[in-house]
Amino acid sequence: MALKRRNLIISVFALAATAALLLWRPTVLIYGLQAAGLYAAIAIPMGLVLGIVHIVNLAHGEFMMLASYATYFTCKALGMDPLIAIVPTAIVTAIFGWIIFQLTIRRALKAPELNQLILTFGIAIVFSQAINLVFTSQTYKMPLDYVSASMDIGELTFGIWSFVFVAAAILFAGGLNFFLKRTTTGKAALAVGQNPKGAAIVGIDVYRTYGLVFALAIALVGAMGALFLTKSAIFPTVGSPFTMKSFCLVAMAGVGNIPGILSASVLLGLTENFLRAFRGSREWADIVFFVLIIVVIMSRSLKGRKS
Amino acid sequence: MKRFVLAIAAIALVVSGVAAQGTIKIGGIWTLADITGKQGSAAAQLAVDEINAAGGISGKTLQLIVVDDEGKADKAAAAVEKLATVDKVDVFVGGMASGAELGKIPSFKKYNKVVMSTGAAGSATVEKALGPSPESDFYFHLHPWDYNQGASYAEGWDAIQKKYPNVQIKKIFLAYEEGAFGKSSWDSTKILFGADKRYTIDGAPFKSALLGGGDYTAVLEAAKAFKPDLFLWAGYDADALPLLEQSKAMKFSPGIYLGAPPGWPIGFGSSRLANNVMLYGMWSTAMNDTNAQSKKFYDAYVKRYREEPATYFALLAYDAVKILANGIKAAGTTETAALVKALEATSYASALGETITFKPSNVIKHQGITRQKILQWQGGLQEVIWPFEAATAAPVYPFPAWK
Amino acid sequence: MNRTLARSLPVAAIGVAILLPMFMGDYPLQVARNIMLYMALAVTWDMLLRSGQISFGIAGLFGLGSYASILAVVRGGMPGWLSIPFAGLFAGLAAFLIGFLILRLRHTYFSIVTLALGEIFRIIIHNMHDFSGGPEGIVVQQGIIFGGASRNLYWLTLAGLAVALLASYWFEKSKVRFALTAIRNNEISAKSSGVNIFRWLLLAFVVTSAIQGMMGGIFVMSYGFASPETVFSADFTLLPLAMALLGGIHSTVGPILGGLLLGLVSEWLKLQIPYGHLVVYGVMIVVVILFMPQGLLGLARKTMRAAGRNRK
Asked: Where is the chain membrane-spanning (chain A) (predicted)?
């Protein structure tokens, strides 16, 4: 009961703060949400892998980078829009992800978690350096008219295309929630994530489930690769910063808590953009990310000890 | 440890080869995974082959030995040591990122061989680490320092406003990437444009997409609120189109939209937004029509490597080898004191559209190029606007408002 | 026979390491310096790992030490050689204070917080323009330590590595080993058998951080500059991890072997394949992890065991 009341107070407070922000600095809210959408949409697949397969995939961003390059050159050759390529890219990268899983990660699953970490670090180097070798470090960007779509409300003019990332994030989180809670395969995956030995005893093929979940996560990353291409230029190291960001967001939400990634991203996006809006605090926007992570993790660990 | 010793010995054996008589060795150090280093080393090899095909230097052939610095200080230092002690090169060429260059400087100083440097614009660190003459006399810095660039832009915009009275600049906004490159641009812009209060300057940092950023909304909000006549961004090629697209989404259209990245993304010119964007640079393919040197280099490079030189760093590396070769020919030796003296008399008509000579800069004695150019994207090509003697087109002003 | 060999091998290795400058040129010495720096980081990272705590904060502490050293010299007028132990002291003190906050965290949460702290150090240095030199970095104007003499710089880095190895040896041979292993294997039973977990963790964290900071001091004094992107580079976290793992964790020898392997191979590949050597480097890391999950040390143990069985 007390918990419910506290949650209510927190949500009322958050709503009031949002309303105040909307009136005072509407752009902070708009751009903060857009940034949050991008963060969350990329972090959610990593949360899925960490929550069920229990590996930190340091090649996470590199998978997205590969998907972006594949989309770019396919679209260029066929004169296609990257938006049309989202689903095909997701399918192709899922297969690719599954192959990589079977060839490498699967073989290291019994080893200590550090082995998996360095293994994916090695994979990340191979991916980004191979792309560098073939396509050089030069950047590629698709010129697309619709990414400059804008909206006027009174004095305010802002870009609206990036809201597509918010939609993607909500879709990913909702879809995964449905998958894990309502489908047989999803329920099995969740069971494997919580207790692999127990799941094996009741007859679930643990390794097959791991492979499937990994492929699903890479499919989402692949879809993001195509979507990301609309907005951003691509180059060999474009993915790697997102690996660290995603990892931090997943940790902030708590391993296994996919909806939590959404709220962590919103908190982060809004705070960053709030600080960027003022001359005195602009340069410190980056630090917020890390301070928030520490605060959230520390307070959770304190709470955990009390209960 | 024994295995270590053996392995080192093996490395030394494999790479050293036999020092041929009558060979002048040039040690080249670039970051080869980067397009500037990849093409810089290729262009330097082109220059070496051209010189050898024309009979070498007084009967001696040139040999270029390239080692990767991986953009890291420790690897860069190892590269200098390897070239100096194992290959026993006579002179050095190369360089791009200041961080790697700083790793090389202690070793460069130790060997005191002539260095023809093609990059490293950070005066606050690289020039300071080199120190004043005479200790740094071996170091010939081709690329302009950050303050040289700032000064040349101030000069350029004065000249453009004088020649084209419809161009009016009062307020300048600089969006600079938060790293070393952007920060030094901001420092020199503030000093050189803000000096006599003719201009009002403001600026804000952003995180370049190259370094994991790519969100330009906040910096563009700040720029829009300032209402600048000239909007300048100092970032990387990855920022070019996304920044422009975001500007359009926010209906931010200053009279001059100017970018200063070291290179541009592939296909930038084909974007509809790109037309009439201005840029800072040293060279463009448009100069092939007005400059015979430029055309000669361009044709030779494309013929050999089947790709376009993406940035001016390829030309700098090419010129660096040519200048070194001329100096060695004049001095008749690669011995440092004599070669420095010969190089001081350099007057080299560069493919970059200017004659390169060496003059003292703020700290060191041998600074090559001091001017950059002001260019404009017109119909998918980078046309030179200033300096007027190298101009290939007249400026289009103002930057078209977004339709 | 085997035992004498096992005992004389380290002595021989130390002798060779000290005397190396007598019969090696400047290039091998430079490569050795680069490798030894990473080795020291790998060994110290492993020392903390023996308690089960995975730190991602090596680059953060290395960078902190680097700036402590160079700022003490440039802003405080401290002699270069003194700034190196000062860097260690500074990083150790920082770790002591931070330790109270974070050493109660476990697993991924500890890793992520150490990573975040490293990034916070970097951003603070990056933003303190006037004092730290900001993003462009800072230069020691009077030149580098020992006038840049290769041998002295080599011995300096070797001394840094020696400190790391001695500390690691002490961890292995004293009751620190018992405490850390107990914490790693079963924290609850360690607690119930009277091990003061926090105190031992703090000791390990402070000692390893101090050495990492000191190596930062050695790095900046040997090159005469520091910049945020150089000294806080993720390389200083990931490469030592990879080295320790490829060599074999929970030992002193493992990280040394791994450092030798990765360091020599990366330098050799760079010369053999100027364009694209990093692809091969990545493939090698993947292959070694897959086929030698226990690292070189594990492989050596396995072969020795097999050889022993054959003899019987």
From this structure: 7-24, 36-56, 85-105, 117-138, 158-180, 210-229, 249-271, 283-302
